Amino acid sequence: MPITRVCTPRLRLLTSVRYCPISRGRPYHSYEHESDPPPFNATEEAVLAAALRQVPEHGFTDASLSLGAREAGYLDITVNLFPRGSFDLVNYHLVTRRLALKKALDAQAAKDDGGSFKGQGVGTKVKFLTLERLMANRPIIHRWQEALAIMAQPSCISTSIAELARLSDEIWILAGDAGVDSSWYTKRASLSVIYSSTGENLAHCTAPKPEAMLMSGLLELFMTQDQSTDFADTQKFLDRRLEDVRIVGSGISNLKGYLDFTAHSFINVLRSKGVRI
Amino acid sequence: MSVTMLRRRASRPLVQELLAPGISWPQRSCRRASSTADAQPDAAARSPKAPLRREDRDFLDSALRVNQAGELAATLIYKAQTPLLIRAHPHLSSLMRHMYDQEAGHFSTFNALLAKHRVRPSALYPVWQLAATFLGWSTAMMGREAAMACTEAVETEIGEHYNGQVRQLLEMTREMEARGEGVSEEIRHLMDTVRRIRDEELEHLDHAVENDAKKANGHEILTSVIRGGCKTAIWISERV
């Protein structure tokens, strides 16, 4: 009798839980209408948050999930809510850390009351947010390679990449970037590439899962190998990559400006000579 | 009797908008303003506002994107036409300046809206830049009448497109009110913006016709080709 009394409300709750896959991109952000319902409902939130606390010890595994369910006061079978198993746990981490960026930015802006941070350019804020997001992996950094491997599984790759795109979109928007021409795409693509940066660091890493490195997060992977205090090497690595992109980006826009100017001058010279074009 | 008169008068703008969105603009602005002022406390009482439905958000998303792409193209068409036209016909200089300035204003309006509402621009942005510049330049090369015929064709298509959007926005707000949700100021503002811009585009159409757009060589073929191109471009940029 006591058992049923304890279990019935929980079980009833479980039947009302609806598993919803990650929504598509979030078009048209409204300021007056209520925003979307949170990505995870109360049950999912409770179980996944508790499971995430188990990750440092048990890794991104089904074991963490069931421990989390138990800790949150649900039956072990609650794990069936998450058909993708450990990937749902990884995804929870990705989504919540992305959504936490706004608070981090607000906190930073509130911290320096002189308003110097608010006045900073978009570039500084992008760097701050990217670093902030990387540092959010800190508590579970020794388990992150498992997560990368899970994300690179064929059934999860598309979701992982979409989440990476949402992350870089979020960072640019929070940084206050208002560009809506073709640079909208290049900015997001280059930040995604930085975040999952390729290049020379591959050589320094001895990762167990090469496909994981290719697909999701070399910068993150770099961080998993980083032995320096306070991830100083990772910070330097990020600085170098952002600087590279800034140089390439300004080079491209200079070249575009130059070509545009030259073409216009050329046409105007021809027109002044009486050529009817 | 006076009550029924009043009621009929009050119900008129909506019906008119749905049947013929193009008719009787001059009175609308003041009527509109008073109706939003009436609706204000009502909407505030119902806040917080219900989240937008998925299909409404998708519609707003693609509507803002296609409008930005369209205004980008319009500014570039005028920009490419202007030097060629005013060299041959200096008296057109002020008209071209006026039309270009209005289009540039529309373009920055939509740029701001895109950035504010986190809408991505069209992925074919550079393609529209090239196509619009080419269209403006080539029609200006064909002469004043052809350039005006291009304006006529483009603005006709754009006017129809904006009318369709106003219609859909009205439909959306009506459904929101039917569900008992408040209509947000941001949607009302968007509707007013689209209406204002549509009126200005149709004014350009009038200017083009006044300047002998119909006398262009092969007017029929030219305008139908350009209108077909516009339709295709709208269809594409609503999607990508």
UniProtKB/TrEMBL annotation, chain A:
The keyword Magnesium does not apply. Pathway: Cofactor biosynthesis; ubiquinone biosynthesis. Keywords: Lipid-binding, Mitochondrion, Transit peptide, Ubiquinone biosynthesis. The keyword Transit peptide applies. GO terms for cellular component: mitochondrial inner membrane. It comes from the Eukaryota. GO terms for molecular function: lipid binding. One of its GO terms (biological process) is ubiquinone biosynthetic process. It is found in: Mitochondrion. Residues 158-198, 220-246 form the COQ9 C-terminal domain. Coiled coil: none annotated. Membrane-associated protein that warps the membrane surface to access and bind aromatic isoprenes with high specificity, including ubiquinone (CoQ) isoprene intermediates and presents them directly to Coq7, therefore facilitating the Coq7-mediated hydroxylase step. Participates in the biosynthesis of coenzyme Q, also named ubiquinone, an essential lipid-soluble electron transporter for aerobic cellular respiration. Belongs to the COQ9 family. This is Ubiquinone biosynthesis protein. It comes from Trichoglossum hirsutum.
From TrEMBL, chain B:
Its EC number is 1.14.99.60. Fe cation 2 binds at residues 103, 155, 201, 204. Keywords: Iron, Membrane, Metal-binding, Mitochondrion, Mitochondrion inner membrane, Monooxygenase, Oxidoreductase, Ubiquinone biosynthesis. Pathway: Cofactor biosynthesis; ubiquinone biosynthesis. It catalyses: a 5-methoxy-2-methyl-3-(all-trans-polyprenyl)benzene-1,4-diol + AH2 + O2 = a 3-demethylubiquinol + A + H2O. Residues 30-52 are annotated as: Disordered. It is a peripheral membrane protein. One of its GO terms (cellular component) is extrinsic component of mitochondrial inner membrane. Fe cation 1 binds at residues 71, 103, 106, 201. GO terms for molecular function: 3-demethoxyubiquinol 3-hydroxylase activity; metal ion binding; oxidoreductase activity, acting on paired donors, with incorporation or reduction of molecular oxygen, NAD(P)H as one donor, and incorporation of one atom of oxygen. It is found in: Mitochondrion inner membrane. It is an enzyme of class 1 (oxidoreductase). It holds the Pfam family COQ7. Component of a multi-subunit COQ enzyme complex, composed of at least COQ3, COQ4, COQ5, COQ6, COQ7 and COQ9. This is 5-demethoxyubiquinone hydroxylase, mitochondrial. It comes from Trichoglossum hirsutum. The lineage of its organism: Eukaryota, Fungi, Dikarya, Ascomycota, Pezizomycotina. The gene is COQ7.
